[in-house]
Amino acid sequence: METRRLVLTLTSIFVVLIVLLGGLTVILVAGGGGDDTGDTAGDGNGGGDPSGDANDLGDRIEGELRLFGPDPITLDPACASDAGSAEYIVEIFSGLVSFDLDLKVIPDIAEDWEVSDDGTVYTFNLRGNVLFHDSSRPVSAADFKFSMERALNPATQSTVGEVYLDDLVGAAEFADGDADEVSGIKVIDPRTLELTIAEPSAVFVEKLTYPTAYVVDEREVGDSTCFEGNWTLTPNGTGPFKMEEWDLGRKIVLAANPRFHLTPAPSLARVTYILSGGSSFVMYENDEVDVTGIGINNIETVRDPNGDLNADLREGPSLDVFYIGFNAREAPFDDADLRNALSLSIDREFLAREFLLDLVEPAKGILPPGMDGYNEGLADIPFDPEAARGLLEQAGGAGLLDGATILTSGQGATPSDILQAVIAMWEQELGIAVTIEQEDFGLFLRDIDDGNFEMFSLGWIADYPDPQNFLDIKLHSESLNNESGYTNPAVDALLDQADGEVDEAARLALYQQAEELIVDDMPWAPLYHGKASYLVKPYVDGFVIPPFVIPNLRYVTINR
Amino acid sequence: MPAGLATYILRRLLLLPVILLIVSFVTFALGRYAPVDYVEIQAGPRAQPETIERIREERGLNDPVPVQYVRYMGNVLTGDLGVSTRYQGFPVEDVIFPRMWISLQYNAVVLVLTFAIGLPMGTWAAMRRGTWQDPLSIGVLLVFASAPVLISIPLLQWLFAVKLGVLPSGGWSEAEYLGVELGLFSKHAVLPILALTLPGVAGIARYMRGQVLEVLDQDFVRTANAKGLQAGVVVTRHVARNALLPIVTILGFELAALIGGSIFIETLLGIPGIGLLAFESIKSRDYDTITAIVLVGSTIFVLTMLLIDIAYGFIDPRIRVEGSIS
Amino acid sequence: MSYAETSPTPFEAEPLKNPSYRVLRRLLRRPVAVVAILIIVVIYGAGVLAPWVAPYGFNEADFRNRYAEPSLEHPLGTDNLGRDLLSRAIWSAQTTVIVSVAAVLTGGLFLGVTAGLAAGYAGGRTDSIIMRAADTFASVPTILLVLIITATLLPRIVELARDVEDLTGFDWIVSSGMPSYFLVFGALAIFGWTGIARVVRSQVLALRQEPFVISARASGAGTPRLLFLHLLPNLTNLLLVSFTLSFGGLATAEVGLTFLGIGVQPPHPSFGLMVSEGVGLSNVREHTTLILVPTAFIVMLVMSFNLLGDQLTDVLSPRHR
Fold first, then answer.
1. 3-class SS string, chain C
2. Which of C81, C265, C282 lies closest to A412 in CB terms?
3. Using a CB-CB distance cutoff of 8 angstroms, which residues of chain A are in contact with residue B268?
4. C61 and A CB contact within 8 Å
5. What is the complex's ipTM, to 2 decimals?
6. pLDDT > 70: percent of chain A
7. pTM score of the predicted model
8. Of A60, A131, B246, C205, which one's alpha carbon is 20 to 30 angstroms from that of B204?
9. What's the pLDDT band for C319 if we cut at 50, 70, 90?
């Protein structure tokens, strides 16, 4: 009887499996006791020996910091274009200069540098004691030339090389394949590197803090491109931490670089990033991670002065601005009165305080607080529906905005509460109905680049803490990133003047003037600036979430 | 093995490449037809349009889609599944197979649990027909069967991770046992297994109950009962044959739905399995990874279906092979 | 687990000749069935009559009254934007009605039944072509492909719809979410017809051996006549159960698809949207009603369809004749 045989077989399979599962339960109960939910059954299991390298999340070693991190796209410094990747790269690799936690440029592999009188030639003197992680050899000027040229080389297929290194003389020719080398990068001797830029720039050195200018090991990297080659599994960098393990999509484990050349040298023995999981807030509560960001839903629990978590709360600035952009090229949004009417009917104070529960600061201009050149004295943008209605009448009436749409990214997801609130305010105060159109992020970026929108909502986060990064890049009429198509010759003139100004105070003053003109014209309705709100376990000292990506782990110590 | 079965299997196997060719081309072409490609998505807002265009050209993205497809399939035939762009630079096989292993682990346990609990439970309920136990157990099961995992997971998370604090809220961790990376022995595996097993058990048990009732009402069982045979013996002997066939079918469907089904559970629980990877790959237009996942998924499906057919042939040789799963 | 498949429940090849009214009468004698039908009628009815029944508009937001507790004014409380949850649920029911009816009509009924009838009746080459096509379609991981299609085709279809708007002056096409409805449920239809086609085909194969069909054919009945007068009526009961079950499945499918961002587009409310707005763990923790409200509706609805399906099977089953 075939049937009986089959039934027998199936039954026995089930029995075996049930026994196995029973065993599993026993192991779980035996090995998983206690509150540490990250614990695995490894120790209690007699059948198998847990791996010797103890990399599972269960065993925490002394001096280990655990973080919930973004799943990076690439760890190749020449290729990374997103903050999620840069976060790891700045710890593993390093460059000539870097930022400290006060957002000041500090020497890194370079010991110091001189700038020529005309502000175009930078001579960097390299430290002699900087070794690659494998200790095989010291970093030399030639390594920098290789690394920067690699980022610019069209064969590398990096989308960001030109963005951050375009100041260098000869960079464009090299990137277009018209030159064999970048003439602006000269190796004077192994410890001296000379960089020449076309025009003096106040932000050139700051741009060198970006991973694109970091040094990589030629012998390891070879001719791998951004899209071929996985040498980043074992990157031979020069940063404060070295890669111990990268389990794609699951975890990244970094270990301190004992020979790191800056003080403080890293004191953490190991940093484990968990790349996937449920809620990082719950992971924090269950002691699986040592730091977590706080979302809108948890902030009230955390702020409760009697709660357990209140003492762990930290806050800091985040150099960003969230705004609604108008298409200033086309009617009706080419009219500053109409744009101001829309802006004046947004109750920013209510949005920031009641709606986002003080997790953000209401914006009064473009530049975020905490950035050099932030204008404390700038007047708040008032919530003045009366004036708004007047301006709208003047511009031609609410009829102009019939069927207006606002473009936002995130196809299918619920649009952000804040955007819906803004639209409801417009409806309430001005009687206009604006529709939200959502698009996939890539398409959204393309559409706003092409000026294919009426309004859009977006945020901008600093690449480096300088007003140039906001005003020049986003609102200069000739900038690629000026999505609003805003043109004001007076603003352009001020921005150009600031770009060449050597005196820091005068430069910042010029930016402030430009910002005032911009706020009057309102090509954007800035809504708010973010704040970093996060929890840090009491035994973790010195952990700060910087306002943009800065190597911050070498300042952290664990005191259990 | 009946001679007809062998030719049948052969015919189905010959059909496999055809199916894969169609499926892969559709996936491939659809990906390329998207308005925005991976270069543009990853370039971010600051990259220059000329740079993007140049990279596109160099990577062959501007070639006609059929040309790109032939090139891709050529590589696939030589065992090269391409490179991922979600994990830039990594070969696709290095990316998808570890992920698939994770999904496979918890899904296999779910499948086993589902049947191991569901079959006896359904039988039990049927035998208790007429008592209060039957409607009660079936009612409870029905609630589980009616709640999509999408809803049950947050509630389970809330209960176990927040309220009781005994399980992690998501994620996955593995340790090495006898040289194999296994995640099943970790607390991380409990939530996904629980969330998938509950509705699964409900479905199977309800189905099994119906089957058993059907058999119990048939004349030969009544006769057997009248002859004084124990009800349990009768049921196991006779229900088995009638119920097993459809259950094998369901088993096949569950296996085949693995990739699709894991998308929800993995995005909700942050399990780095194949479902989450598929979802992310589509979002970041990681063409080669998507196509590879679809190819592998379809292969698994077709082979599973074939196995079901063969199993049918063994379970009940009377069944005409052609059209047996119809 | 797999929601896109039509329920794979196989049916015994048994011609069922119960006229529908008798089935209905027998069904109405069962309290469980009556309760199930009542729940379905109430939820669907509320959905159809949403503009009149719902106390508030689906997008009527009152910012100063967010996350309100249930009260007389808002029987189920309000959500993150101060919208009335009861009204959102009622409008969501409307979406479910539209989606289910559209999907069953396009996917299951037309494609599935036609293909199944054709394959079963014609046999031979037609049969094997249709069934191989079914194999191919079924072997694709459906959700994945629907995801891909939405990511790739949706923007283009929306573009197209915008052009149509510009041409015709109807400016509600895109904002009503119609392109995405069409695309998603079109895609589900293309991949979802195989289950019902198989069931229908096997029934037809069985029916073909029945004396009444053989004699009808012998007496010279034409193919259409044979199909529609003799075969189809014998399939109604089977289809009835299948559709009952698939209605529940579709309600679940909508939730899943919308969660993945490819179903009903906001701000148009749907249970899927309500679930995905309330699904985050911290949301569940702080504002549990956000997820409980849609959950209650969906579970009740799906459960009722399942119960009704069970009862129908029971009623139609030969042992209860």
1. CCCCCCCCCCCCCCCCCCCHHHHHHHHHCCHHHHHHHHHHHHHHHHHHCHHHHCCCCCCCCCHHHCCCCCCCCCCCCECCCCCEHHHHHHHHHHHHHHHHHHHHHHHHHHHHHHHHHHHHHHCHHHHHHHHHHHHHHHHCCHHHHHHHHHHHHHHHHHHHHHHHHHHHCCCCCCCCCHHHHHHHHHHHHHHHHHHHHHHHHHHHHHHHCCHHHHHHHHCCCCHHHHHHHHHHHHHHHHHHHHHHHHHHHHHHHHHHHHHCCCCCCCCCCCHHHHHHHHCCHHHHHHCCHHHHHHHHHHHHHHHHHHHHHHHHHHHHCHHHC
2. C265
3. 278
4. yes
5. 0.86
6. 89
7. 0.85
8. C205
9. low
